[in-house]
Amino acid sequence: MSDKFYFLDEPLLSFGGDQVAEDPKDGLALFGPNEARSSLPDNIVIGTIEGLNLWGGWCKALNAPSSCVDINRQRPWPPYPGYDVAFGSSWPSPLKAYSLDANELQNAATKSDKHERAFAVANQYLSNIEKVKKLDNKPALAICVVPDFVYDHCRPQSYVQEKSDEPKTNEQKKYLKNVLKDHDMGQSRLFEDEALFDKNTNLEQYGLSPDFRRQLKARVMEYDLPIQIIRESTLRITKQIRDGEPGVNPLSDRLWNFGTALYYKCGLKPWKTPWAREGVCYIGLAYKLANQKSGTACCAAQMFLDSGDGVVFVGEFGPWYSPEKKEFHLSKEAAEKMLKGAIETYQDQEGKPLKEVFLHARSGINKEEFEGFQKACPEGVKLNAIKVRKDNSCPRLFRYGDHPKVGLRGKHPILRGTFWQRNKYRGYLFTTGFKPRVGSYDGWEVPVPLLIQIQHGDADLVQVAQDVLGLTKLNYNACQLGESEPITVKNSDRIGEILLSNPEFKHDKWKHNFKYYI
């Protein structure tokens, strides 16, 4: 089979009144959200006094129109019409605002031990979320406004120069390491050396992520309350940001993205996929390496339904990583258990009979895995395994130019939606490139295509490419015309990090809804 080229039209999205548009900003501004409500559910906000004041100003900005002063910048950054116009209802003031002591938060965020830092800071936010149980009306969302010093100090590689406590000595660190090793094996020490180890130390914190964001995202699931984390600096609106001057991300674009994320986390979908086929679901396999030497990794499945809903199913730890091949693969038994659990979750939440399942994986899916997945599929359900990943080794393509000077031809980036089919089972899809709606290419490098390869199944490759292009528009955490990767693989690293970096958090408390992970 010789090479073929296709141009895939930009997939449409469905908005209010079943009206469609290519760009979510156009659709929301013209028709409103697909799932409209006359009023939005309650929310709470947690932050320092300064953070709460900044949030109050941001709420006013959400409910007001915004646009770049320079009209030439309004095509790539469309004007924001205000929350009531875009989403059918004004953004409500918080049901409750909980204030954190900035000095206490500073002391917690500057502890010498990175695990203690993240745990102590997360506790200050969670102690206020605990108060939600006493409210008559349960909110749908918690806004966590975070000072920038928390972002700077509470990440795995952060270094604190001015510490709020006395750092542990090397001997104390060594003793703690042995205590944790015994703890992991279910053993306890009868005689603790008080000079080296405080018996009141909470060992749970060492089984949680030293990254504040990942830890808070995991621990808050116990309260059945999605959260939106935002830095104080993001909420500061300068004249340069408000006017949308060059060098900054305009306020209008920030409001579009943030407003969409808030709407989705409140339990409502701003748009849906009219191109989705009923009974078809897309599952992305997410992996995160736990131990390089043993190859131990965690696997999770991200399932996206024809309704646009996202479901996360947590798998098991196991030796899924091969250092030689640098790929992740499940055993037949683990693959069967993974897909069986995901399908059961789908049936519990959706209830519609499945017709076809598409598995997406960056590492691809081998024969043994596919046999396991097949065993989990109900009778009559078609199963297809698709390898989807960016391919930096693929030849880069440019649009043809007829400039009279030969040296100036071919300098324009390829169109987003160009599909280069190499054979019946493999092709390259350019999900980045020139976007006619935007009138430019909004990237920084020569567009890199996605390799799309049908490894198992008898799906039509062009149809698979169209589906993948459509799935680049399902990220409700932003309001973009389309992204470089489909949602099935885009957030696999982020989900894996939250799952893997918190082994102390019990698996029965994990939530299946995608809104808890973004």
From TrEMBL:
InterPro entries on file: RNaseH-like_sf, RNaseH_sf
Entries under Gene3D superfamilies matching the protein: Ribonuclease H-like superfamily/Ribonuclease H
Cross-referenced SUPFAM superfamilies: Ribonuclease H-like
Protein name per UniProt: Piwi domain-containing protein
Organism: Oceanobacter antarcticus
